């Protein structure tokens, strides 16, 4: 039940209870008053008639007095009146209707009223008034008086009509109270609470617009104002977070781009070397054709060689452009062995310069993972270049591609994933440096040689793919970097069941 409705019901229940108690007390008081009135009227009437009867009794004798009583009786319809001797035994025509036990207060008390049932009629009120007739000799020792009897039907009618009147008045009062309380309750409490609830729900959904305006100056209005202030603060904080996030993303993008350009720069010399040989072949063959000394078969042969070399150069340039182009991650099923092959071929000139060899081993069937080929290639290039730089001439770098069920460092839940492991024979990483290698700008290289961004950017890229990079190393025992990428397809065979082959 809603708060406003609860308040209204509670107040109405209190009003009904209060009205019922007040009505009951008022009915009781009125009935009591009516009863007291009836008794006192009977006493007064009995007293007045009693005095007259006593006078007549003393002056004209008892017979005349009894006649007077009959006369009065014939004129008064509501109250019956007759002469009684209080000591007369039951059955005596002058015996009182009330039993003697109820009249013991007489004659010490001048008048007594008792209620007696009178079936089948309503109860009657009997009032006994002592009449002092002491002057007549024969009745000197007897105590007599008047018995006044009155039906209690009017009293019953009066109490019934009082009850009905009180019930109707209470019902009208309750009805009016319900209307007023319901109207005020809904206007002052229900409506503002509904508006506050709506506002809170909108805030919960992230909609901070539309400040709440409540009239008045009560606690709910205050709450609405506080809510508006809170929304304004939240909106400001959200805007700040958005701007900071945008700035961070832009900075990250810039670092990635810078890192990519740095890598491209490093690769450029190797690429120039790679392009030099085919270009020489193309230009030599073209010169031969231009001289016109060649037979038709030799021309065809030279043209075929020129075409082959051109395609090789075009592939190389396309790979370089793919690598350098800045674009948002776009994951699609990628054959990791093929990707590693392309990277190795790009880095071959650099490896040759270092007098090092890159050896690729890939599991069968081919390991295919959802990945952005360009970005993963960037990561692998970074790790391979670090490996080549860490080695003395003549070293070997092994690249293994397989599947593994491995536990993510943070939550430890083992998941089937694809793994690219790069193992070098370089100088390794000291235990103090090892925890920091993924930190941005951490580098042990000379100024101008290292920026300390390569591994942090690589980690970010792999994280965006839902994976992680693991490193283990010991000084002068080489380093092993393992890239884990989730396999979205059916779970892969366990590490133990994967076979490896060597790709030249
Ligand atoms: P940079 O290569 O510009 O220094 P990176 O983030 O790629 O930045 O690498 C950070 C540091 O990690 C390197 O300076 C180096 O000390 C260490 N490191 C990375 N890979 C290797 C590796 N294969 N062998 C030894 N040290 C490495």
Chain-wise SSE layout:
Layout: H1 3-60, H2 62-75, E1 79-85, E2 111-116, E3 124-131, E4 144-151, H3 153-204, H4 219-291, H5 296-324, E5 332-335, H6 336-353, E6 357-364, E7 368-371, H7 373-390, E8 396-407, E9 414-423, H8 454-464, E10 468-473, E11 479-486, E12 499-503
Helix pairs in contact: 1-2, 1-3, 3-4, 4-5, 4-6, 6-7, 7-8
Bound molecules: adenosine-5'-diphosphate.
Adenosine-5'-diphosphate binds at residues 382, 386-387, 390, 424, 426, 428-429, 433, 437, 442-445, 450-456, 479.
Q: How is this structure best described in words?
A:
The chain is an alpha+beta fold and 504 residues long. It folds into three domains: 3-159, Beta-Lactamase (2-Layer Sandwich); 211-326, Helix Hairpins (Orthogonal Bundle), CATH 1.10.287.130; 330-502, Histidine kinase-like ATPase, C-terminal domain (Heat Shock Protein 90, 2-Layer Sandwich). Helices cover 54% and strands 17% of the residues. The chain has eight helices and twelve strands. The strands form three sheets. The chain has a six-stranded mixed β-sheet. A four-stranded antiparallel β-sheet has the order 1-4-3-2. The chain has a two-stranded antiparallel sheet with strand order 5-7. A hairpin with a 6-residue loop joins strand 8 (396-407) and strand 9. Helix 4 (219-291) runs antiparallel to helix 5. The longest helix is centred in the middle third of the chain and has 73 residues, at 219-291. The protein starts with a helix and ends with a strand. Bound molecules: adenosine-5'-diphosphate (ADP). Adenosine-5'-diphosphate binds next to helix 7 and helix 8.
